[in-house]
Amino acid sequence: MTSSLRTLTVDCHDPYTLAQFWQQVLQGYAEDPDDPNNPDDPAAFLRSPVDGPDLLFIPVPEGKTVKNRLHLDIAPVDCRRDEEVYRLLRLGATLVDDRREPDGTGWAVLADPEGNEFCVERSAAERA
After folding, report:
1. Shared domain check, 95 and 54
2. How many domains are there within the chain?
3. pLDDT of 9-44, one tens digit each?
4. 114 and 13 Cβ atoms separated by less than 8 Å
5. Which pTM was predicted?
6. Which helix (H) or strand (E) holds 125?
7. Extended beta strands in 5-128, E state
8. Which residue of 39, 45, 100, 109 lies most exposed, with the fewest beta carbons within 10 A?
9. Looking at residue 121, which CATH number applies to its domain?
């Protein structure tokens, strides 16, 4: 027997704002048109454009205090890694650790507006 990954839940202070950030980051992730996210909702939800995982943002009282034990690795779809890093910084991410190498390999560790780390890898075209 096995299980499938259905939803990735993110603890945060402001579910609506964090969902807005991630909706701009991830291609095709969108609110449920029949139940859109609102700033006063107790949680926020983004549906995956494919068969999961969806993203659920729920409020918790405590802040993030240590490095994530689990994080997302993302890759740009229609631009280069460095262009995507720049775009995400403009959206409100912060650069945590720059692991990019002069030869073009490596990745950048960023944090979302609430401090959750994620990595930006090279695009498929850059890896080819």
Report:
1. no
2. 2
3. 999 999 999 999 999 999 999 999 999 999 999 999
4. yes
5. 0.93
6. helix 124-127
7. 7-12, 44-46, 54-59, 72-74, 94-98, 108-111, 117-120
8. 39
9. 3.10.180.10
